[in-house]
Amino acid sequence: MNIESIRPFAASRPRSNDAINVKTQIRIGLVGFGTVGSGAAKILFDNADLIARRVGVPLSLTRIVDIDVTADRGVVLPEGVLSPDLDGLMNDPSIDIVIELVGGYDFAKHVVLEAIGKGKHVVTANKALLAVHGEEVFAAANRAGVDVGFEASVGGGIPILRSLTEGLVANHCLSIVGIMNGTSNYILTQMKREGREFQDALAQAQAAGYAEADPTFDIEGIDTAHKLAIMVSLAYGSPVNVKDVYTEGIQRLSALDVRYASELGMTVKLLGVAKFRDGEIEARVHPTMIDKTAPLAQVHGVYNAIHVVGDAVGDVMFYGQGAGSLPTGSAVVSDVVDIARNVRKRACGRVPPTSFQMDCRVPIRIRPMEELTTRYYLRCMVPDQPGVLSKIAGILGNHSISIASVLQQGRQEGQTVPVVIMTHRASEHAVQTALQDVNRLSSLVSEPITLIRVEDQES
C-alpha cells in the first residue's frame, strides 16, 4: 500500500476532541438585570470554577444590559459589563449565548428573535412569551440552527422541562398535575391554616413579598396556564394555544369552602391539569379539591410540586421552590451550561427545544371544558325551609347529576344557611346547565352556587 492510498482514509477520520473544541471560553450576554437576572449572574460569578470544570471551558458573562445601571443588586460586576446598550450586545460577534430575562411579550420577543437572527443561542425564563409566541421562536431557532433553553420558565429551580424532554422520553405521558404558582399556593395555605378570607390572605402575601402589587396573573390562574401550555407542548408533541387552556383562578374562593373541604377530608389547591385520554388532551387550570393525604396536598406556602404519570415509569413527583432569585437563576444557568456543552462539541440542536423533532409534531385536539367528566363540590346558600334541598336535587337529577352526599350543619330557621352537595361523576356541561337553572330561582338560592371540581383517582 502506498502513501497516496492512505491519505483519503486519513482525511475522512473524525477529528479528535481537541480539534473540535476550538472554543477557549463561552461568552454570555444578559438582558434584564432584575431579580432573576441578578441571581443568574451571582451563580455564574460565584460558581465559575465549578461550572468551568463541568463545561470544560470558562463561561464569561461579558455584557449585561438593563435600563437601570445604578441600583445595587448585591452582585459585584467587572467594570464595563453593565450598560443600557442592547445594540452593543446584539452586534458583538463574540457573544455566544443571550439570556433574556426582561419578561413580558413584545420587547422580550424582539430580544429573543434578534438574538436568534444573529446566530446566537437563547436562554429565557419567560413563560408568557413562550406560551403565546413559542411556535414563532422555535421555528426561528430551527431555521438558524441555534438552541433555545427555557427550563426556568416553569417551576423555578425544579428541573421539570428537562425531565419531560430527556429523562421521561421513553414514556407516553398519561398525566401532568401540579401546583405551579407559589403566590396562589401561599394564599390558599393561609386561608386553610388561619381561616383568612381571600382578600386578607392576598394582602398578607403582598406584605410578605410573595405577591406582586398587581397579582392578576397569579391569582387568576394565568401564570399557571402559561406553564401548563408549555408542558403540554413538550409532553405531547403538539402545538398548544394557551387560549385553549381553560383557566379559572382562586379569587372567588371563600374561607367557608376551604373549611368545608377540610371537613370532607380534602384540601383546595390551584392545579394545572393535563391528561391524555382517547387521543385527546385535557388542559385546564382551576381550584381543585384533592384528598388531604395526597402528595400535592402536603405542598404548602410558596412551594411548587408537579406530579407526572408515565406509562412505563409510573408516578414521578417534582418538588421545590417555584420562584426566587437563586432557584430560578439556577435553572437559567443550567440551560446556559447545557448549551455551552453543545457549542463546544458542535452538537447544537441535538435535543430539539420542543422535545419532538419539529417535523414530527402533530396537532392534537384540546378537549373543550364542557366535555370534562369529574366529581363536583357545590355550596348552596339557601333559606332554611322544608323542601328547598329536594328542589335543588330535582334540578340536578333532571340533568343526570347524581348526589353522593349532602352536608348541612345545624339549623337557623328562617335564615340563609350553607348546604354542601358532593356529586358523583358528571359532565361539566350538565353541571353548568343545572347550576344556571338553580341560580335563576331566587327562592332557592340567595347567591350563585359555588363550584369546585374534585380531582381523585377516578378523575
Structural description of this entry:
The chain is of the alpha/beta class. It contains 16 helices and 17 strands. The protein has helices at residues 3-12, 17-20, 35-46, 48-55, 86-90, 106-117, 127-144, 160-167, 182-194, 198-207, 216-219, 222-236, 255-263, 325-345, 388-398, 428-439; strands at 26-31, 59-65, 82-83, 97-100, 121-124, 148-149, 173-179, 246-247, 266-277, 280-291, 303-310, 314-321, 373-383, 403-407, 416-423, 426-427, 450-454. The strands form 2 sheets. Strands 7, 8, 9, 10, 11, 12, 13, 14, 15, 16 and 17 form an 11-stranded mixed beta sheet that branches. Helix 3 packs across helix 14, helix 7 (127-144) runs parallel beside helix 12 (222-236) and helix 15 runs antiparallel to helix 16 (428-439). The protein is elongated and about 85 Å long. The chain starts with a helix and ends in a 5-residue tail after the last strand. Mean pLDDT is 92; it is low at 1-21.
What labels would you give this structure?
459 residues, alpha/beta, 11-stranded mixed beta sheet, 6-stranded parallel beta sheet, 17 strands, 37% helix, disordered N terminus
